[in-house]
């Protein structure tokens, strides 16, 4: 007798992150430009398109955000991403949204990395935060939703 298959659903964490990131945004501060984030069909991944200038360098790329899941395995607890850009870089990140949905932390690489971003969402969806780098440095960044 065959066991009925259940349709998988995206995690609550991915659903909550989608509510915060999906849409068009204007970036300012240590970077200037735009981002556009959309939900991939099925809801398991976000696709974020970025077109920014940072330190005089034009960066255009795509980031795929979601839980890692190998064949036959359960999805990872953390939400990971990989960013691919026009300069040949591939950058990995780990995302975490606080329980109340106000604080977003993005680590460069694995959770707990000394390179990380912390931002706080306002009621209008604007996220004000700062990238921190090992040994000091970093920059402030504001991500403001673009309506329409």
Give the % helix. under 10%
- Strand fraction equals over 45%
Number of helices: 1
Largest sheet report: 10 strands, antiparallel, barrel
* Lateral strand order in the biggest sheet: 1-2-3-4-5-6-7-8-9-10
- Evaluate the radius of gyration: 16 Å
The CA-CA distance between the termini, in Å, is 52 Å
Shape: globular
**How would you state the average pLDDT, rounded?**
95
Structural class: mainly beta
Please provide the count of β strands: 10
Uncertain spans, ≥5 residues at pLDDT below 50?
A: none
What does this structure look like?
With 148 residues, the protein is mainly beta. Helices cover 7% and strands 53% of the residues. It contains one helix and ten strands. It has one helix at 12-21, and strands at 23-29, 31-39, 45-54, 57-67, 79-85, 90-97, 103-108, 116-121, 127-132, 138-145. The chain has a ten-stranded antiparallel barrel. It is globular and about 60 Å long. The mean pLDDT is 95.
Brief overview, please?
This protein has 148 residues and is mainly beta.
Strand and helix layout:
Elements: H1 12-21, E1 23-29, E2 31-39, E3 45-54, E4 57-67, E5 79-85, E6 90-97, E7 103-108, E8 116-121, E9 127-132, E10 138-145
Antiparallel strand pairs: 1-2, 1-10, 2-3, 3-4, 4-5, 5-6, 6-7, 7-8, 8-9, 9-10
